[in-house]
Amino acid sequence: MKTTAIIPLRKGSKSIINKNRKKVLGRPLFTWVLGEAIASNLDEIYIYTDDDLIINYVKNEYKWSAKVKVLFRSEESATDEASTELAMKEFSAKIKYDYDVLCLLQATSPLTTKEDINSTLEKVVNNNFDSCLTVVEYKRFFWKEEGVSLNYDFSNRPRRQEFKGTLVENGAVYVTTKSQFINSGNRLGGNIGVVKMPEDTLTEVDEPNDLVVVEKLLVNRLKQSKGVPATIKAVVFDVDGVFTNGNITYSTDGEFSKEFNMQDGMGIELLRECNLPIVVMTSEKSDIVVHRMNKLHIEHVYSGVKDKYSLLEYLLKDLNLKRNDLAYVGDDINDLPNICSVGWGICPANAMEEVKMESDVILTNRGGFKAVREVVKFIMNYNKRF
Q1: What is the value of pTM for the model shown?
Q2: Contact 102/92 with Cβ under 8 angstroms?
Q3: pLDDT at position 386, please?
Q4: What does the pLDDT read at residue 78?
Q5: What DSSP state is assigned to residue 297?
Q6: Which of 9, 161, 212, 279 is a plausible cystine mate for 49, CB 3.0–4.6 Å?
Q7: Distance in angstroms (rounded) separating the CA atoms of residues 370 and 96
Q8: 352 within 8 A of 329, measured Cβ to Cβ
Q9: Helices 371-384 and 262-273 meet at what angle, rounded to 10?
Q10: Comparing 157 with 365, which gets the higher pLDDT?
Q11: For residues 362 and 356, is the Cβ–Cβ distance under 8 A?
Q12: Can you tell me whether residue 134 is helix, strand or coil?
């Protein structure tokens, strides 16, 4: 069965301007659910939006994933008054209903994981449900204004651990068969299944304060999956602010020069002699960086990468490694998701304060001043213990 996801995004937002592009731990909000969708069992994912900036971002950033596509939505379906069902119907008509199962993913639920997506798909694809949604078991007591309790007996108040609570729709994932959607015109209908998600996923990004809450929840989520590796099996480096001091010299023709440390270069050679895979990932497109990394004989070099977290997740399959096997070295907020989630998150002495707060190791050296060599020494000494 062909499973297709739609992530509808509107350019306009009254409560948070350009909400879907707002940075959350250094990543645009919508990329959190997009990255999980790429890693899930979905066959294809459509970003359905009227925002040209998002369209260009997706086209340039996710060339490594054949799953990801973009489609322009009409002005009519992107108004405040338009329902999500209208966008789903319009989208379906544009692709001529070329799917068996349609999955609606909401960018405002950045805590959604690939496991959540797979579980909802499983309900519909293999368990004979016509549609499915994600819910949270919410252990709160509900009342009517008339003073009537709704979901518990107040005269026999249960303890929290004994109270089943109420299942609340969290707005994260919806899945429907094509026939159900055509017949009802609604994302839900027929035999409806539910998939429980953790209670913290009840938080959706609708107001500015939600961004603050979600960032903290994401940091906690990423760090919960961390484990101290027996050995570090690969290292991932950012470039500017790590290999260099972060400064760039420009001429009238563009980028003119960056300064690299030769002793850092020797450190890379030492890592290669240990047969340790080295990955370099930078958000800038720079011929100077490519030339330097070629001279250092680094095979895995990726430039112009904005969503480093998703790309690293993709590369781990080829490297046959897990995040806990890695050391990641970065200095700015776009490195935070990886720093928080790998075995050892490392930053130079001149990293941004937000990065220092979440790093496992803060180097004594600054980027461009033997920071890379210090990382190499740390890794080699760490691995020698075992």
Answers
A1: 0.91
A2: yes
A3: 58
A4: 87
A5: T
A6: 9
A7: 57
A8: no
A9: 30
A10: 365
A11: yes
A12: strand
| Residue position matching structure tokens 């979600």 | 214
Residue 3 φ/ψ, nearest 5 degrees: -110, 125
Beta-carbon contacts of residue 385 (< 8 Å; ≥ 6 apart): none
**AA identity, residue 146:** E
Q: To which residue do tokens 């879907």 refer?
A: 20
CA 346 from chain centre, in angstroms, equals 20
Q: Residue 149 has which token pair?
A: 């309790």
Q: In terms of residues, how long is the chain? A: 386
> The sheet that has 278-281: what strands, in order across it?
300-302, 278-281, 234-237, 326-329, 344-347, 361-362
Looking at the DSSP assignment, which residues form a beta bridge with residue 24?
27
What is the mean pLDDT of the segment spanning 108-131? Answer: 96
274 HSE (CA, 13 A, CB side): 22
Helices 29-39, 114-126: crossing angle, 10 deg rounding? 50
pLDDT reading at 32 higher than 70: yes
Phi, psi for residue 326 in degrees, rounded to 5: -105, 155
Task: State the pLDDT at residue 100.
Answer: 97
What are the residues whose beta carbons fall under 8 Å from the beta carbon of 293, sequence distance 6 or more? 280, 301
State the Cα–Cα distance between residues 310 and 61, nearest whole angstrom.
Answer: 10
What residue type is assigned to position 356 of the chain? K
Q: What is the token pair recorded at 24? A: 């959350």
In DSSP terms, 137 is beta-bridged to 167
Q: Is 68 helix (H, G, I), strand (E, B) or coil?
A: strand
For residues 308-331, one letter each, b for 16 or more C-beta atoms within 10 angstroms of the residue's C-beta and e for the rest, the string is bbbbbbebbeeeeeebbbbbbbbb
- The single-letter code of the amino acid at 181 is F
Query: Does residue 129 contact residue 123 with C-beta atoms inside 8 Å?
Result: yes
Alpha-carbon distance 275 to 315, whole Å?
A: 18
